[in-house]
Amino acid sequence: MSQRASSSTDPRFAPLPPLLTLEAVGKTFGSHVVLDGIDLRLAPGEVVAIIGPSGSGKSTLLRCINQLEPPTSGRVTLGGTVIEAGHTPGRRELMNLRRAVGMVFQSFNLFPHLTVLRNVSIAQERVMKRSRAEADKISMQLLARVGLADKAQQYPSRCSGGQQQRIAIARALALEPQIMLFDEPTSALDPELGLEVLAVMRELAENGMTMIVVTHEMHFAEEVSDRVIIMADGKIVEQGVSRDVMRNPQTERARRFLHAVKDR
Amino acid sequence: MTADMFWTLASGVPWTIGLTAVSLLIGVLLGIPLCALRMSRILALNLAAQAVILTLRAIPPIVWLFFIFFGLGSSVIELSPFQAGAVGLGLITAANMAEIYRGAMTAIHPGQWEAAHALGFTTWHRFADVIAPQLFRVALPTAAGYAIGLLKDTAIASTIGVAEVAFQASHVSQRSFRGLDVYAFAGLLYILLSLPIAWAARWADLHLRARVAR
Amino acid sequence: MTDLLDFWIEHLPSLLDGLWVSLAVTGASLAFGIPLGLVLALAVQGKSKILRSLAITVVEVGRGAPALILLQFVYFGLPNAGLALDSFPSAVIALAWCTGAYTSEIIRAGLEAVPHGQREAATAIGLTGLDALRFVVLPQALRVSVPALLGFAILMLQASSLCFAIALPELVSQAYLIGSTTFRYMAILVLAGLLYAAICIPATIAVAALERRLGKHA
């Protein structure tokens, strides 16, 4: 490991008490190790990009944070909620965690049988117990924020991929999460449509949202995120200030990956 | 349940199997020309076949069996209960098999027809060597499912007096006033009888899949 | 020919009475059977081992035994266990059992057709398992199942003819009764067949059209 790989102890990267802490988080499927002892601290407002070859465990790491995939070892702490692997978390803890974490998927996963507006408002009604009218009002504001207020009464299938992903972002924001997870949000999109999604994400980042973004967009990783993490084979092989890591990686594995990506 | 009751019920098994087999044979064979007509480019033939298939499938089997046994039997041609049952269930099976064949035909990739064309096969060879084996393979699981349904439908022939399992069950139940265990056992018998069909179909499916895939 | 028409006109009212009973027993069986099918589909996929084996048994017997045997079991068999029911409730119990068994497979296929990402997204936005099922998974699963369920409903109307065997005065029983008193089996059975065909043929064509339309949009 390089000098920079242990930089989570560097005060520069944790100026405030961390919002999210992962301690030795691991995930195995049978004998297959997908995540191997991941340590990660995220300060409020920090934007972290995770890059790395496919199969390196990036998506699984995101899913371990909100317990879509329960980790097989380690501990996840978010705000006041602590979830230890091995102890089945209580309903209330899981609900608190999922309310605090917004997630955006590669394939959008909008609900096709609900209007755009219902997609955004349903969790407010069912989870936050807002009235229908209030939920719809807030949903309209969120849709306006991602530039899609005019699509409110449409069904998702009538929207382009880029629009669907922006709606998915609005849906995740509806729960007023403390942190947003993005799982390759532009991978399923044409480059042009990806740009409109990246613009929304940039706006979120500039307004202080704490974000973890698994991405193949090297430009986004370098320009928008504060910190870049490179993963390979279920481990963090390098992390640090975005520009440094992207331009001057210290480890051989990171160099090889960045080289391969830039050649493409 | 007494041994006597058991053996009476069991005596219906050959009739159930026989009626299923004969009806299935009639349906499998008669379904071929019916399917050919249904896919004919001559509109009149096509529509006639459609009408026949729809009618056979739209009217409940019990009505067909009554029609053949009591209706035709009283005025046109007298048939034994077994003959009437086999004709009625056989015709219904033919309509269903025609639809199963047609479904299988559409499931075969159009490229297969084109390839057979391009290789200069005659129409018959095209069908016999290229299409038929695939057709059989695709249709088999559905046809086996239908055969199990047919086995259960033969119970309906008890209403016109074929001495099969359901007939024996109602006979024994009326004599002994022990409907509960008699009908439970009869139901079990049908389930047991359908198992070999399911196994045979699965075996044939695996066997054929290996051969056709090669 | 006029003789036949006179005969038909004379007996049509009693056949229509019978048809009404057929439709009523079919409707009631579906009304109880389809919710049962939903419960069975969920139980078969559920976590509880006891519930799962129970559901599988109910489904396998309901699909494996002929509907006629189920009807006779309920009508002639259950009295041995102290439960003597009229022919109508007996018919509804037996046919609802049959409906539940078959529709559970239809609905299970519908549930499996809902992409995994839908459940993931529902979980990620904090919906409870029950809410995810109710608002996200079931509406989509049932929509996929509609053509198959309608097709099954047509089969159920035909299966209601088996209630002849338990003395329910439905269409076939009425026709048989008229046949046995007038000895004009052929004429009355043709009319009964026409009544079934008048419902089932248009319904079959409509379901096929619906299936094609949904298929195109999927």
Automatic annotation (TrEMBL), chain B:
<dbReference type="InterPro" id="IPR043429">
    <property type="entry name" value="ArtM/GltK/GlnP/TcyL/YhdX-like"/>
</dbReference>
<feature type="transmembrane region" description="Helical">
    <location>
        <begin position="182"/>
        <end position="201"/>
    </location>
</feature>
<feature type="transmembrane region" description="Helical">
    <location>
        <begin position="82"/>
        <end position="101"/>
    </location>
</feature>
<feature type="domain" description="ABC transmembrane type-1">
    <location>
        <begin position="27"/>
        <end position="207"/>
    </location>
</feature>
<keyword id="KW-0472">Membrane</keyword>
<protein>
    <submittedName>
        <fullName>Amino acid ABC transporter permease</fullName>
    </submittedName>
</protein>
<feature type="transmembrane region" description="Helical">
    <location>
        <begin position="47"/>
        <end position="70"/>
    </location>
</feature>
<dbReference type="InterPro" id="IPR035906">
    <property type="entry name" value="MetI-like_sf"/>
</dbReference>
<keyword id="KW-1003">Cell membrane</keyword>
<dbReference type="InterPro" id="IPR000515">
    <property type="entry name" value="MetI-like"/>
</dbReference>
<keyword id="KW-1133">Transmembrane helix</keyword>
<keyword id="KW-0813">Transport</keyword>
<comment type="similarity">
    <text>Belongs to the binding-protein-dependent transport system permease family. HisMQ subfamily.</text>
</comment>
<dbReference type="Pfam" id="PF00528">
    <property type="entry name" value="BPD_transp_1"/>
</dbReference>
<feature type="transmembrane region" description="Helical">
    <location>
        <begin position="12"/>
        <end position="35"/>
    </location>
</feature>
<dbReference type="InterPro" id="IPR010065">
    <property type="entry name" value="AA_ABC_transptr_permease_3TM"/>
</dbReference>
<keyword id="KW-0029">Amino-acid transport</keyword>
<keyword id="KW-0812">Transmembrane</keyword>
Automatic annotation (TrEMBL), chain C:
<feature type="transmembrane region" description="Helical">
    <location>
        <begin position="188"/>
        <end position="210"/>
    </location>
</feature>
<feature type="transmembrane region" description="Helical">
    <location>
        <begin position="20"/>
        <end position="44"/>
    </location>
</feature>
<comment type="similarity">
    <text>Belongs to the binding-protein-dependent transport system permease family. HisMQ subfamily.</text>
</comment>
<keyword id="KW-1003">Cell membrane</keyword>
<dbReference type="InterPro" id="IPR043429">
    <property type="entry name" value="ArtM/GltK/GlnP/TcyL/YhdX-like"/>
</dbReference>
<keyword id="KW-0472">Membrane</keyword>
<protein>
    <submittedName>
        <fullName>Amino acid ABC transporter permease</fullName>
    </submittedName>
</protein>
<keyword id="KW-0813">Transport</keyword>
<dbReference type="InterPro" id="IPR035906">
    <property type="entry name" value="MetI-like_sf"/>
</dbReference>
<keyword id="KW-1133">Transmembrane helix</keyword>
<dbReference type="InterPro" id="IPR010065">
    <property type="entry name" value="AA_ABC_transptr_permease_3TM"/>
</dbReference>
<keyword id="KW-0812">Transmembrane</keyword>
<feature type="transmembrane region" description="Helical">
    <location>
        <begin position="148"/>
        <end position="168"/>
    </location>
</feature>
<feature type="domain" description="ABC transmembrane type-1">
    <location>
        <begin position="19"/>
        <end position="207"/>
    </location>
</feature>
<dbReference type="InterPro" id="IPR000515">
    <property type="entry name" value="MetI-like"/>
</dbReference>
<dbReference type="Pfam" id="PF00528">
    <property type="entry name" value="BPD_transp_1"/>
</dbReference>
<keyword id="KW-0029">Amino-acid transport</keyword>
